[in-house]
């Protein structure tokens, strides 16, 4: 099969269709390059995981349009350092942080709108800029802008393999169709939707379970990691642990794919979480929810049956973003345990031990308050209040995987590297290189910061590479 799109060689080929790919395509087009973008999904599912996003984490030294107060570089860096446990490339992380302070005007130029600062339960109006209409509106705005700039877009265009010679991109293949370009940007996502690869990465645990079998995919089903696997097999330098990912505890009733943000359970820090044996297993009040929500998917993945249960009482209602499904409700704790299928005696022992250990100070869910436990393991270091006021609610939790961190090693030019030598015409952005910044953990909005920063760099560098190739060709003709 040959199409018109493949008869004329574009300057820049962008493989992918989400935020990072779109940023790359827009920057390359703005630089004067002809651009062809290949999106694996059909048009109605375009945009990858970006359609499920809501915001961008932004550095700023003073109040700025939709951002209140200040969120300086060093604080952003310390937040990232804390969640990653130091498994991050500081140079590239700081590049992302600085880029996040200046990208919004460019985003607005391409039709993205931001909503006024949020108040209420989210407490991220200082650190995060929220997209008006969410990620879907952002994706649609970028596609409209790309089309106006003359970017060719093909849907249902899944790339199987690349021709690479001496670290240089030569061609991409959609089945038997061969597409050449002077430069290429890889922004095709991670492997979170590839169940076989997830099983291989996570293996079998000591209980004989295959944890990955119980993972739900918060985002797109089209991120199969085909191109990532192909690149790793052909010697591209790799970075990241295949079991590390942006993984959130989500409602166990969520769909297998595309459940998005509304399936997240946000009441964890207001109560306790137990496993199927009725036992607590981690500090629910360790830090503010936007900095800690992304560790809970992995915590649940390590529990028997890869399931947990978030338990709250009436005092918590109205203090968190309600999920898409209502919780299981009961008038007493033993009744709640029965409804959730948990061992009543163990569950009640856990709740009684926790309630007795609570040392109530001044409860304040907007600060790291002094309500904590004493004499119970695990401790709850903030927001610890007895669960004693009916009705009681329980939410079954499953690991919800957003995107994986295994990827291609890169540098500040976004170049793909082979044996530590950067390619001069093959670049990478988004989930395919996020492991350079995110070795583990996550903090709200940083994925879009990485995709935006490196998408823009990759697009700019690809356009330069294409111009250099054209200049070289013209010089060769002149000398012939």
Automatic annotation (TrEMBL):
It comes from Limnohabitans curvus. Its cofactor is FAD. InterPro entries: CobZ, FAD-dep_OxRdtase_2_FAD-bd, FAD-oxidoreductase_2, FAD/NAD-bd_sf, Succ_DH/fumarate_Rdtase_cat_sf. Keywords: FAD, Flavoprotein, Oxidoreductase. SUPFAM superfamilies: FAD/NAD(P)-binding domain, Succinate dehydrogenase/fumarate reductase flavoprotein, catalytic domain. This is FAD-binding dehydrogenase. Residues 11-437 form the FAD-dependent oxidoreductase 2 FAD-binding domain. One of its GO terms (molecular function) is oxidoreductase activity. Pfam families: FAD_binding_2 (PF00890).
